[in-house]
Specification:
A hairpin with a 2-residue loop joins strand 38 (1425-1432) and strand 39 (1435-1442). The strands form ten sheets. This protein has a seven-stranded parallel beta sheet, with helices on both faces. The chain has a six-stranded parallel beta sheet with strand order 8-13-12-9-11-10, with helices on both faces. Strands 21, 22, 23, 24, 25 and 26 form a six-stranded antiparallel beta sheet that branches. The protein has 49 helices and 40 strands. Helix 5 runs parallel beside helix 7 and helix 32 runs antiparallel to helix 39. Helix content is 42%, strand content 14%. The protein is elongated. It is an alpha/beta fold and 1486 residues long.
Length: 1486
């Protein structure tokens, strides 16, 4: 890297902490070149980094400084320090924050944009760089390496430099500030360390570190004295001890250790359950790769005695022996006692769901732990003192001396004891807490690393029992003085902020130079001491070596040093000195794959494949040549002294069977110098192949790990439009189809005809659809009953001004009669006009209105549409052609006219009339004759909804003087009553036509969908119409999932099922569908306004000027207008948007099958280029290779299902379990099951939708489908399906002659599964036993029962692979029949699915799930329900509790998670019976 030339004097930033002169010297040096600051612990190296990062931010504000610390604890500590010192956001990213889930580049960009400094572990940055989420050259200006001595070999610090730094352009000279364009270049480097080396040759170590970090190691020179003022080197002391016991005989003084050794010595590896299980597994395995793996595993376990129990007890013995020698027999006795007790408590046979092998292994371990009859360890101080080692005695003396020395300076004692082993920390802590010399003299704590080892011997690891106090709490108490002595592992050596420590004792000699320097650096107080404990004649040379290395380091610091350019071979990752050019880069993102990362990347890929409890997907590595000779485990004699093979090595890597055969096996030749190199090359080859096959994205991440991104600009804009959290989108209001783009002089005219009424002519600015059989309009009149409304074809006419004015007046009169209070009289700009040219009574009523106007000269003559009944009757001789009368004035309530009452009422009736509500307030009321007789008028109801004819109402008498007559003909009154409903129907039909003429022009086939299908497809339930989209949505959902599934199968032949499922879910989820609907503005055509006649208001072409009397809610018909309304948008449920997309697909499917359904789906551009079902099937079949030599078992399956395969390979795939390793060419059944699942759902929903005579609701369809398409029912059918096969064998006859004995045997479908798993075999056997026990009950319930047998089916506890077989066979038959739907329908009948479905539907079987039924009932009772699970005597017990009711219990034999389901179902059924739920909730009624 070129030196950075500065052009001026940089003023150090002002800080709360005073910058010391040696810190300023190092800061200035770091501005000129990359350096590694080598200073003692406690000298303020982090402060130098803080100052440096501040300056770099001012110089390059568009980039960040990245601070790297090797551990999470150090990251958190340094983040606090940096955040307090730097004004501005400081980011923190480490493993505890799940950075591997940060698979979104925009998320990383936001973190970098919003931070001045980012603190992380090196692995986090390495991963981000390797996947192309962070650009080292464009986004980072400074790399700070804390504890920089780690930057060697394959440590992430070195990988960052080697794989990403050195490939960047060399950094150009920078000015004090640079606010210009961002350049891609190497960031500057600042390393921080107390010791630049671990050990070995000092000069070589310095040179390697400087090359790796492209830096120069620097230590203050000009101000070295100032450094000495602040860094206090401790006084070095050493304590020499002599162990009085030999290592190999020390155990004779430890009774517990002796018993342990006896138990371990008696172990026989051949009797270990793990070995026995492997032998049994090997016996069952056919020849093939999996048999070879089991053979190798068995030989290795026996050779190394590396089973669960043997390894655990052997490690326990070794640890106890080491403790006995190091700390004495009391400590080893205590340790063995604690470990055995802890093991017996932790390792129980039923503590988790495990396989039978593990269960036996744990029982075997318990058996041998129980044989260790340990003696109780006495806590008596004298006993402890007599049974501890000389080394412990020396430590006790040293602690007493150090405490006395500290107190002589009037300083409180604080000390650290560094111990190598975690278990030794615990044992030593126990001694110090009990020994009389220390228990009262010191407050003692422990500090160990947060080890999360996954060893199978973890139950014997008693260090997990140690005080649960966190590292932070221990350090806080140590700093405050509440603890003054800490026994710690190496976790306390490096970087942790441990201050005020006056004494450091090394219980074990440091393992390297860094450990020496850093542990010594913990003693940072004045007059501190550093004490080494070493065994006489053993450790002297090691101490001298450390001192010599430190002296040579001082010499190197004082030499003039210059940066050494990295060699070419250093810039590439090598493995064992080979393969310096094996790197794969993705140009578009900058993602990088190296050999060192290949195995971890591949493991991550496999971990994301959806696994089952029978198969944990992982890559299998078979080394070439094998480690052990084949069959060594059974050879006689057995040679234990097998010489290790020195290479070269090859490797065969096999990916899980869910991966296509073309990608599954990867072989590297026997040319690599080590096993690890061979493994890495195989993994590298496999990962590159997965990328090239499209199973990884351009960031080299599995597709399963990446959240779906919105790629195009339109969709990005929609992210702001659709708020996923609330589930609502802000959209424009529903389309008003009556509103023209521009008002014209010409009008569309159509005649409306209703039986018994004169024709009514409709005028509109837009074309009105013809009401025919497709758009049939029936009105359900409360008096006249059903009425059919028709319209003539619309024609364009000129409407003269005089006729237009007359039509507007006539229209106003029609609407005013019913909704006048919510209209503005002067506003005549209606969106639709009406005129009747054939009303025979029109002239009569116009004359009467003219008479009324002449009688009311002081009132606006235009507003006179009613007359006083008394005056009207006298003038016109009490006519009987009246339709409406009103009580009181013109705005009074309307009633239907019956006649005139001339006959006088009785005195009682007259009195009743005077005191009625209408007239009780009129003083001196005189009842005059004739009276008006009327009946209540039917409410303003939606005449589009079916209802019976209303019964005649009670007659009511009105006094004419106080009543009004509506001055309209009977035809006008009827039309005024029916027009709102007629216009609503026309509005809906016109909306559908608008959709057809606009959006559907992009897909011409959709334009032919009948209006009778289109209208319900776009009608939301909120509209309260007779039909809505819910049924079509259920059908469309199933159709869409199927067509997406078959498209994905064809388009991605190499994708495993998990990828297909993830992609399908991304395509059909509500969020995606809602975005698609919003992009095409589908919301405009969704009928969602609630039609309420009692609040009806006519539409206008322009906004009424006076709306003070209008009472219109947001959920009613919109007002037509020429300008945008004030509130031009509304919140619409994203689910509604998604539902309408699916309902339109359903409508298209009904009209034109899958082809039209796909055309409709294409219209919405769902992120997948959809093609026809036939084309996809042909594409899938084109990749099915012809094959022969199949097992006769396939013919048995074909007989069971009633179908003969043309392409047998499809059936083989449908029957192949992921554990099957004998056939390496066939993929397992998961892809086929993916297709079959979508097919089965679609067939069942299609059947239910078209079921004759019953329009099932979506809830009904869901309940029926849930009963027929679930793991339990399909598994039941899998267990039930069978066929008789010929099992004749030559056998000796009674006479002794050999002859063919005829015999048949029944083969079941589940037995035809191809697998290589003993676990699957056990599951099959147990499931069939449960089937035999419960099948009679289940069959009776399915055949004649009234309630679906949920609980009985659950008692089968079937593994999922049984139901998967059914679905995969369905998928295979569909493909082999070239997508023949009728063939699949026949198959479903053969499988029994359709027969059972027909029965439960036709006979109305109660299929509601008992848990669902109980939940609904509890909700209706406004109570809370609780399900609690306990275990007792090998059973799972489920207790259901509801407030105020007696709890109900049911139990099931414990066999894992499914046992809880069985107990829950059984308990729910018992609760339904006990609490009377069944009587309150019947079966599904449609």
């Amino acid at each position: 890297m070129e030196d950075v030339q500065e052009t001026g004097t940089l003023t150090p930033p002002v800080d709360n902490v005073v910058t010391r002169s040696y810190q300023q010297e190092m800061l200035e040096a770091s501005l000129l070149e990359n350096i590694i600051v080598a200073q003692d612990t406690g000298s303020g190296k982090t402060h130098i980094a803080v100052l440096r990062m501040k300056i770099e931010y001012e110089r390059q504000p568009h980039k960040v400084s990245w601070f790297l610390a090797p551990t999470v604890t150090l990251c958190e500590q340094q983040h606090v320090v940096i955040s307090q010192a730097i004004a501005g956001p400081v980011g923190l990213v480490h493993g505890g924050l799940e950075p591997k889930q940060w698979t979104d580049p925009e998320l990383w960009n936001a973190v970098i944009k919003n931070s001045r400094v980012i603190v992380s572990t090196p692995q986090v940055l390495l991963d981000a760089l390797s996947h192309g989420f962070v650009s080292l050259g464009n986004q980072i200006c400074l790399l700070v390496f804390d504890e920089a001595h780690h930057a060697a070999e394959n440590h992430p610090m070195n990988c960052i430099m080697r794989d990403h730094y050195f490939s960047l352009p060399v950094r150009q000279p920078a000015m004090t500030s640079n606010h210009g364009p961002v350049r891609e270049e190497r960031p500057m480097v600042l390393g921080l360390t107390a010791s630049p080396m671990f050990g070995g040759n000092v000069a070589e170590a310095f040179q390697n570190l400087e090359k790796n970090l492209d830096s120069v190691i620097r230590r203050p020179r000009r101000h070295l004295g100032n450094l000495a003022d602040y860094v206090h080197r401790p006084t070095f002391r050493h304590v020499v001890y002599t162990q009085h016991k030999q290592y190999y005989t020390c155990h004779l003084d430890s009774p517990n250790l002796q018993v342990l050794k006896q138990v371990v010595g008696a172990l026989d590896i051949e009797q270990d359950p793990y070995v026995l299980a492997l032998r049994e597994d090997l016996r069952k395995r056919p020849p093939g790769p999996e048999r070879q793996r089991v053979d190798q595993k068995l030989s290795k376990v026996i050779h190394k005695k590396d089973s669960y129990t043997h390894r655990g007890l052997r490690n326990l013995e070794k640890t106890a022996h080491d403790i006995c020698y190091d700390l004495g027999p009391w400590a080893s006795d205590w340790f063995v006692q604690e470990a055995v007790d802890h093991g017996l408590k932790s390792v129980t046979p039923f503590n988790e769901v495990i396989s039978p092998w593990q269960h036996k292994e744990k029982a075997y371990l318990i058996e041998h732990l129980s044989k260790i009859k340990s003696s109780l360890v006495s806590p008596d101080p004298e006993t402890i003192d007599s049974r501890i080692s000389n080394k412990v005695q020396a430590l006790l003396r040293t602690l007493a001396e150090e405490k006395t020395r500290s107190e002589s300076f009037n300083e409180p004692y604080s000390g650290l004891i560094f111990v190598t082993r975690r278990d030794a920390v615990l044992a030593l802590f126990g001694i110090l807490m009990c020994h009389p010399l220390t228990r009262d003299a010191f407050e003692i704590g422990t500090l160990v690393g947060a080890s999360e080892s996954s060893y199978r011997t973890a139950p014997l690891d008693i260090t997990r029992k140690m005080d649960a106090k966190s590292q932070a709490d221990t350090l806080t108490e140590f700093r405050s003085g509440d603890i003054n002595l800490v026994v710690a592992t190496a976790v306390a050596e490096e970087g942790l902020d441990i201050q005020a420590c006056g004494n450091v004792i090394r219980w074990d000699i440091p393992s390297n130079m860094a450990s020496w320097v850093q542990s010594r650096g913990r003693a940072r107080r004045k007059r501190s001491s550093f004490v080494l404990m070493f065994e006489a004649e053993f450790d002297n040379g090691r101490i001298a070596e450390f001192e010599e290395q430190e002296r040579r380091m001082e010499e190197m610091y004082n030499k003039e040093r210059r940066r050494i350019a990295a060699e070419t071979d250093q810039l590439q990752p090598g493995v064992d000195g080979e393969d310096t050019d094996t790197v794969f880069r993705v140009k578009s993102t900058g993602a990088v794959l190296t050999l060192s990362a290949a195995i971890s990347h591949l493991n991550h890929f496999c971990s994301l494949l959806p696994a089952t409890r029978h198969e944990n997907y992982q890559a299998l590595y078979d080394i070439d040549p094998p480690d052990m000779p084949e069959g060594w485990h059974s050879s006689v004699p057995r040679y234990d002294d097998i010489l290790p093979y020195q290479g070269p090595f090859g490797c065969t890597l096999t990916l899980p069977k869910v991966i296509d055969a073309k990608l599954r096996v990867h072989v590297v030749k026997r040319v690599h110098l080590s096993k690890r190199s061979a493994y890495q090359h195989a993994a590298f080859q496999a990962y590159v192949a997965l990328y090239e096959a499209g199973l990884l994205n351009d960031h080299l991440l599995p597709l399963m790990s990446v959240k779906e991104r919105v790629l195009d600009e339109d969709e990005q804009l929609l992210l702001a439009l659709i708020d996923k959290r609330s589930g609502f989108a802000s959209v424009a209001r529903q389309l008003n189809p009556w509103q023209p783009a521009e008002v014209q002089d010409s009008w569309w005219s159509a005649d409306i005809t209703i039986h018994g009424l004169p024709p009514l002519t409709l005028f509109a600015q837009v074309e009105v659809p013809t009401l025919n059989s497709d758009t049939l309009l029936n009105l359900y009149h409360p008096v006249k009953g059903p009425l059919t409304v028709t319209t003539s074809p619309a024609k364009l006419v000129k409407l003269p001004a005089e006729d237009g004015e007359a039509a507007r007046y006539y229209t106003r009169r029609l609407f005013w009669t019913r909704v006048g209070p919510r209209m503005t009289w002067e506003h005549l700009d209606f969106a639709y006009l009406f005129m009747s040219y054939g009303d025979p009574n029109a002239a009569v009523w116009e004359g009467r209105r003219e008479w009324c106007r002449s009688q009311n000269e002081d009132v606006d003559p235009g507003k006179v549409l009613s007359a006083n009944a008394e005056s009207f009757g006298k003038v016109y001789n009490y006519p009987t052609d009246i339709t409406y009368v009103r009580e009181g004035g013109s705005s009074g309530k309307a009633y239907r006219f019956v006649g005139w009452q001339f006959e006088k009422l009785s005195s009682e009736q007259e009195e009743e009339l005077r005191t009625s509500r209408r007239y009780s307030r009129i003083e001196g009321l005189q009842v005059t004759y004739p009276l008006l007789v009327a009946e209540p008028l039917s409410n303003k109801v939606n005449l589009l909804l079916r209802r019976p004819v209303a019964k005649p109402g009670k007659y009511i008498f009105f006094i004419p003087k106080y009543s009004c007559i509506e001055l309209c003909s009977s035809a006008e009154c009827e039309y005024s009553y029916m027009l709102p409903s007629i216009l609503r129907h026309l509005t809906v039909a016109m909306t559908a036509e608008s959709l057809r003429r606009t959006l559907f022009t992009k897909a011409p086939g959709l334009a032919n969908i009948p209006t009778s299908l289109l209208i319900p497809a776009i009608t939301a339930p909120a509209a309260n119409e007779l039909l809505n989209y819910q049924r079509l949505e259920s059908l469309g959902d199933a159709v869409l999932k199927f067509i997406v599934a078959v498209n994905l199968m064809a388009r991605y032949p190499l994708w495993p099922e998990g990828y297909l499922t993830r992609r399908k879910d991304q395509t059909v989820n509500n969020g995606r569908l809602a975005k698609a609907a919003t992009k095409v503005a589908l919301y405009k055509w969704i009928i969602r306004t609630n039609f309420t006649p009692r609040k009806y208001t006519p539409l206008y072409l322009t906004q009424p000027t006076d709306v003070s009397r209008m009472d219109i809610s947001l959920d009613e018909e919109p007002t037509a207008e020429s300008e945008k309304p004030k509130n031009e948008s509304e919140q619409l449920s994203t689910k509604m948007l998604a539902d309408v997309v699916e309902s339109l697909i359903g409508a298209a499917y009904i009209h034109g099958g899958f082809d039209l359904g796909i055309e409709c789906a294409r219209l919405f551009r769902l992120g997948l280029d959809l093609s026809g079902v036939r084309d996809n099937v042909e594409a899938i079949l084109s990749r099915v290779e012809p094959s022969t030599g199949f097992s006769s078992r396939l013919g048995d399956v074909e007989r069971m299902i009633g179908y003969t395969f043309e392409r047998k390979l499809l059936l083989v795939e449908a029957l192949t379990h992921a554990s099957y390793h004998f056939d390496t060419e066939t993929v397992s059944y998961e892809r086929m099951e993916f297709l079959g699942d979508a097919l089965l759902d679609m067939f069942v929903i299609d059947y239910l939708y078209h079921f004759a005579g019953r329009a099932f609701t979506p809830r009904d369809m869901h309940c029926f489908k849930a009963a027929m398409v679930n793991t339990y029912f399909l598994a039941y059918r899998c267990l039930q399906l069978s066929v008789e096969v010929d099992a004749s064998m030559p056998m000796p006859s009674p006479g002794g002659r050999i002859s063919l004995q005829h015999k048949t045997e029944r083969i079941h479908l589940f037995q035809c599964l191809l697998h290589s798993s003993t676990v699957v075999l056990d599951e099959q056997r147990l499931s069939f036993k449960r089937f035999e026990k419960n099948s009679a009950e289940i069959e009776e319930a399915l055949s004649v029962g009234k309630v679906f047998p949920w609980a009985a089916l659950t008692r089968l506890q079937p593994p999922k692979f049984l139901s998967d077989m059914i679905e995969s066979i369905i998928g295979a038959v569909f493909l082999d029949s070239s997508g023949n739907i009728e063939t699949v329908r026949t198959l479903l009948r053969t499988l029994g699915i359709m027969d059972y479905l027909e029965r439960v539907v036709q006979e109305n079987v109660d299929v509601l799930h008992p848990v669902s039924r109980l939940g609904i009932w509890v909700s209706q009772q406004h109570k809370q329900i609780a399900y609690d699970y306990t275990e007792e005597k090998g059973n799972v017990v489920c207790t259901i509790t509801v407030d105020g009711l007696e709890p109900v219990q049911a139990k099931a034999e414990k066999r894992g998670r499914v046992s809880q389901e069985e107990a829950r179902f059984a308990a729910a059924e018992k609760a339904i019976a006990a609490w009377g739920v069944g009587a309150m909730w019947g079966s599904i009624k449609v």
